[in-house]
Amino acid sequence: MLTSQDIQGVIAAIATPFKDDEDLDREGLKALTRYLLDGGVDGVMAVGGTGEFPHLSRAEKETVIRTVADEVKGTVPVIAGTAACTIRECSELMTDARDAGADAAIMVPPYYFILNEEALFLHFKTLAGKNILPVVVYNNPLYTGNPMSPALLARLLQLDNIIGIKQSSADMGQLVEVMRLTDVDASICTGIDSQFFPVLMAGAAGIYSTAASVIPVQMKQIYTFFRENKFSEARDLHFKVQELNRFLEYDPGYVSPAKEALQILGLPAGPVRLPMPALTPAQKAGLTKALVNLGVL
């Protein structure tokens, strides 16, 4: 079973490639997985937000996870998105992910209906207690409408089979507070690329990264510099990558820019699935300029 010690460094949030008719591109997905592995990532997160999970059917999610896991062949952890609005559906998706070869499940809390903290605690406690897969709790309040306080996240980390959190909040102090309140071994990571170097300095384990799905080598180099105590080099590269990160945050959304960047680099991302909007010509030009300035294009 995967443990918190196995989730650190750069976990790339892989895109889900589609063909022009919006069917899954399995060969493209294999190529993207190999690209990430060759880039040195420490893990792959499949069917997360970057992987367009809200636009995938249950069968498609299982196919994506299985394809990634088969290509990874156990070399790094595969962490599968299994979020849904009910415990029953989350359980079904976790079982699918386990059977497809995933090593852990990552989930945002239920969305649409506003839930209090006890309901959110019960949701994750119940799922973790099923022991289908180790669980990573994903706090993304902007997208779910159900924010999880540092106290709640620290409380969840006390539970058996919850091995980490992914914290996607513009307020980096929330992640620092989770670390302050947590007295157990856990993988506490950011999900925001622009926070990567600062949270490493604060003691975080790593990042679930959209940028790493596009520029895995550079993101892993930041982490390597940090681990080698080359803090100036890590900071300088982080600032250099920030020109790309601006396109991978919340405006205009991170999925379309990530897929567009992959296509600019000649990788098989394909289109976003409707109704997700594509980038404007001006956004494409800015994205291309960022990749040129990074030296990858």
Topology at a glance:
Layout: E1 9-13, H1 26-38, E2 43-46, H2 58-72, E3 78-81, H3 87-100, E4 104-107, H4 117-129, E5 135-139, H5 141-144, H6 150-156, E6 162-167, H7 172-181, E7 187-190, H8 196-202, E8 206-209, H9 211-214, H10 216-227, H11 231-245, H12 255-264, H13 281-294
Helix pairs in contact: 1-2, 2-3, 6-7, 10-11, 11-13, 12-13
Describe the protein's architecture and organization:
With 297 residues, the protein is of the alpha/beta class. It has one domain (4-228): Aldolase class I (TIM Barrel), CATH 3.20.20. It has helices spanning 26-38, 58-72, 87-100, 117-129, 141-144, 150-156, 172-181, 196-202, 211-214, 216-227, 231-245, 255-264, 281-294, and strands at residues 9-13, 43-46, 78-81, 104-107, 135-139, 162-167, 187-190, 206-209. It has an eight-stranded parallel β-barrel with strand order 1-2-3-4-5-6-7-8, surrounded by seven helices. Helix 2 (58-72) packs parallel to helix 3 and helix 11 runs antiparallel to helix 13. The protein starts with 8 loop residues before the first strand and ends with a helix.
